[in-house]
């Protein structure tokens, strides 16, 4: 962990934007986990929401001039969910298996669940793209690495939503 990183005005403003993006993601994931009809979708939203809270902690650390270490997962993350899957933002294997098993079934789904998924997938695409731009605006390589780590996790969130949607017949790639 490095302390006393001085941020330019532009870097600070970009981090403030990222902070607001993370806050919106947290709020939406919490609300959508409660609104979702399907228990699998609730689990995807809850897992993604927990990672967004870690991202918010990391952004706040950066705003305070501290660059957290990314070697063991998010610095200061709540709980010792020490599995590599949790630290990289991937779905737990049981959740992935559950989604894969349901994909062999029917393609019936709740339309409101599809709307929730579409909204969150669109938001994750936007947030990932915002991080892509932000990364290139930072002069400190270690800060760029932290932001890149968050961006990769945002992509995993989108991947989890996509996998759920595809398994339920909500998203076709053909």
UniProtKB/TrEMBL annotation:
<feature type="region of interest" description="Disordered">
    <location>
        <begin position="64"/>
        <end position="110"/>
    </location>
</feature>
<dbReference type="InterPro" id="IPR012851">
    <property type="entry name" value="Spore_coat_CotF-like"/>
</dbReference>
<dbReference type="InterPro" id="IPR009078">
    <property type="entry name" value="Ferritin-like_SF"/>
</dbReference>
<dbReference type="Pfam" id="PF07875">
    <property type="entry name" value="Coat_F"/>
</dbReference>
<keyword id="KW-0167">Capsid protein</keyword>
<feature type="compositionally biased region" description="Low complexity">
    <location>
        <begin position="69"/>
        <end position="108"/>
    </location>
</feature>
<protein>
    <submittedName>
        <fullName>Spore coat protein</fullName>
    </submittedName>
</protein>
<keyword id="KW-0946">Virion</keyword>
